């Protein structure tokens, strides 16, 4: 497990208060500068006196480090503050990659392998590192293969691959296991998970 690199999406978790989506903008010995997407509702004076967690996805899975937050010396005068996260460099594994997953609502299209049918548009209801679940998939049966594309939203390009129907779940939701998905696409799915946990 390693510390996050520059531009890594992270979550600043302020216990019993709020969770901030952010990205790493700079780092040094024992500190990281993070740019939150919006200013924290929690007063900075409170943040400076309490421990917070910085969570992110690395190759091992969802990890976190504990530290304290203050205004960075590089902070701009206007806009969301640039925060300096001072940490102990002890990385804790929260969820191994093979067990990572969560509720993620993203646009998706699926088309049966070898079919000339039009792709079926739906939404994901959950995304994991080994499987994902879509709201509906008419005519799907266990063992059917589908080519899929998931659009995470924002500036993220779509994630594409092939999956196999493993079961029809409650409310008509369909669970599919990844059959062919490039490793870098799995990394992007991990980033999608942490970005949506806020």
What coarse outline follows from CA principal-axis ratios?
elongated
Amino- and carboxy-terminal Cα gap: 22 Å
Average pLDDT? 82
Describe the strand arrangement of the main beta sheet, using strand numbers.
Answer: 1-2-3-6-5-4
Please compute the radius of gyration using only Cα atoms: 19 Å
Strand content: over 45%
pLDDT < 50 runs, ≥5 residues: none
Give a verbal description of the structure:
There is one protein chain. With 198 residues, this protein is mainly beta. The chain has 2 helices and 13 strands, in the order βββαββββββββββα. It has helices spanning 44-49, 183-196, and strands at 9-14, 18-28, 31-36, 52-58, 61-71, 83-96, 101-102, 107-112, 120-128, 131-134, 145-151, 159-168, 174-180. A hairpin with a 2-residue loop joins strand 9 and strand 10 (131-134). The model has no long low-confidence stretch (mean pLDDT 82).
